[in-house]
Amino acid sequence: MTNQTSREVGADRAIDEIGQVEELGLDDLQDAGLAANLSFHLKRAEQAIMSRKADALREIDLTVAQCQVLGFLANGASMSCTQLSREALVTSQTMTGIVKNLDAKGLVERRISPDHGRVVLVSLTDAGIERSRRTNRFSAAIEESLRAELSPDDYTRLVRLLDRVAEIAPTIVADSLKACATGQADGTESL
Fold it and tell me: Left (φ > 0), alpha (ψ -120 to 50) or beta: where does 70 sit?
């Protein structure tokens, strides 16, 4: 039995819940209010992909988060935990734990920055470079399998739509929150 972090346990639980939702038909989704929830569908797709990647990465003793860090460092540049945490969209404390685990596996090395004595820089070891190459092959195979299941037009359309959502979401979300705060979203007046 493997030791799982609370994040991995949570992801497994979410994947189980998504599996239950996948058994529902469109009418059931609409009844549950999920058919029109774009965020739900985006998260569901992400969880399905990340689950497959996590399964593949277990074969080489890595988590998805550890794989991400190897990818961030693959170009040979050293990065601080703060920089890595920003890239991975996690807290500095979470990133420190990920880096410590990678260090224990001999995949990264940490050294004090020559420019700032309080900053620790992280870089790949030779073993880390090799493991990063393997993770890239796993990831590429999964991505290619997904692409192969979609027609070229569907794949291109999906990528364009996802890019569009990423482009417009910040503005729309901010405007929607502002409207809710002023009571304009549902026709009620603000307090």
Answer: alpha
